[in-house]
């Protein structure tokens, strides 16, 4: 994630010898070859610089897990976008934006898919997208990196600190993490679905997304 720039340093020491008016002074010789000095000189610019990363194609996963009738159920959102600006030397200046097409959810059960998309739950006809925007990063418990932002879901916006792990990969980085939210905080669950007797309030979100450096 870091850009390393080498700066060239030219250093030479001139040696002169005594000469008479009739003699021609010998040519000055450098004490060290400029090329060698350049190769071994340290960089004079910071080792880290802000970089912009985006998700391309369909790589990565964005999963959700909820409890229904005492059993864990898992689904995922195949359609989402991620944009990240990050400088490891200045995390407070970082930016993260995630947009999820909620209607793309899949649980491998068509009846359950339709129920989750219905007006009594996610109401994807009225609220087709969820959006997370973080305007800075910070260090949380144990020094772990967190995005400091807000999640908009089902028309409700709430503060959310999102734990993150950032690892380099062959073409950029991999962004991963896990967080739990409460569906009723966002009004997801109307009528009989407000009860947590059948469907739990807590929903766990898990993501692992490869990002390619843009530009």
Description:
By secondary structure, this protein is mainly β. It is built from two helices and eleven strands. Strands 1, 2, 3, 4, 5, 6, 7, 8, 9, 10 and 11 form an eleven-stranded antiparallel sheet that branches. Strand 6 and strand 7 form a beta hairpin. It is globular and about 50 Å long. The chain starts with 33 loop residues before the first helix and ends with a strand.
The helix content, as a percent range, equals: under 10%
Indicate the mean pLDDT: 81
Query: Describe the biggest sheet?
Result: 11 strands, antiparallel
Q: Helix count?
A: 2
Q: Structural class, please?
A: mainly beta
Labels describing this entry:
single chain; 2 helices; 215 residues; mainly beta; disordered N terminus; eleven-stranded antiparallel β-sheet
Topology (SSEs and partners):
Layout: H1 34-40, E1 51-54, E2 61-68, E3 71-76, E4 80-86, E5 95-101, H2 110-117, E6 129-139, E7 145-153, E8 156-163, E9 165-168, E10 172-182, E11 199-213
Antiparallel strand pairs: 1-4, 1-11, 2-3, 2-11, 4-5, 5-6, 6-7, 7-8, 9-10, 10-11
Short description:
The protein has helices spanning 34-40, 110-117; strands spanning 51-54, 61-68, 71-76, 80-86, 95-101, 129-139, 145-153, 156-163, 165-168, 172-182, 199-213. The protein has 215 residues and is mainly beta.
